[in-house]
Amino acid sequence: MILRTLDRARDAGCFDRIVCATDSLKIASLVEKSGYEAVMTGVCATGSDRVYEASQKLDLDLVVNLQGDEPVADLDMLRDVKKALVAEPEAWVTASCYLSPEDYQTTSIVKVKAEDGYAVAFSRSLPKTATGWQTHRGVYAYSRKAREEFHGLSQTEEEMKNSLEQLRILGRRPIRVVYSNAVSLSVDVPSDVEKVECLIQ
Questions:
Q1: How far, in Å, CA of 151 to CA of 48, rounded?
Q2: Domain that holds residue 44
Q3: Burial code of 116-151, b = ≥16 C-beta within 10 A, e = fewer?
Q4: Residue 75: how many CB atoms within 10 A of its CB?
């Protein structure tokens, strides 16, 4: 799954450098044997905290964080996220796609509500009467300054309760949401594996 995700980043053809940040020697070894670069981090509270640590080691500014459970990430979505970050480096950038009403109460699927292209709320479960919500995609993009700000903040109660790191920064810094029309699935629970494999096939 991680190698397929790295392949998607490579196939997007828009990134200067592709690095797998991990605290697992097993993952790092596999990644490097497959021709990709890996950087080791300590145990981190969230993916964005891991990206902060890795990017400090690598001395990076603008970074797109594609989470390792996105093996079928849409290539145009990745390109659009990068473009949005370059155009607006003071913001966080993330992505969304269509949300099926069947998934309103599926807690493994994160939802985002955007107004005028910026996130105003995130949730794991919605009432059936909810409107204006989209599926949140597992990608973030941010500058060095934005990552340092995030890492310097304490985890909030809502962030930990919902396991949604973006709640730490929501309301402090704009979160630009790039919408994608493409079907995209992440592997959040074991039952997602079969769905993603079918999509790959």
A1: 8
A2: 2-200
A3: eeebeebbbebeeeeeebbbbbbbbbbbbebbebbb
A4: 14
Exposed (0-12), middle (13-18) or buried (19+): which is 7, by Cβ within 10 Å?
A: middle
β-bridge partners, 96: 136, 179
- pLDDT tens over the chain, length 201 residues: 999 999 999 999 999 999 999 999 999 999 999 999 999 999 999 999 999 999 999 999 999 999 988 888 999 999 999 999 999 999 999 999 999 999 999 999 999 999 999 999 999 999 999 999 999 998 999 999 999 999 999 999 999 999 999 999 999 999 999 999 987 777 777 877 777 778 778
Residues 6+ apart with CB under 8 A from 167: 122, 156, 158, 159
Rounded to whole angstroms, the Cα distance separating 112 from 138 reads 12
Q: How many domains does the chain contain in total?
A: 1
pTM higher than 0.85 for the full model? yes
Token pair 């796609």 is found at 97
Q: Are strands 37-40 and 19-22 parallel, antiparallel or unpaired?
A: parallel
CATH number of the domain where residue 101 is located = 3.90.550.10
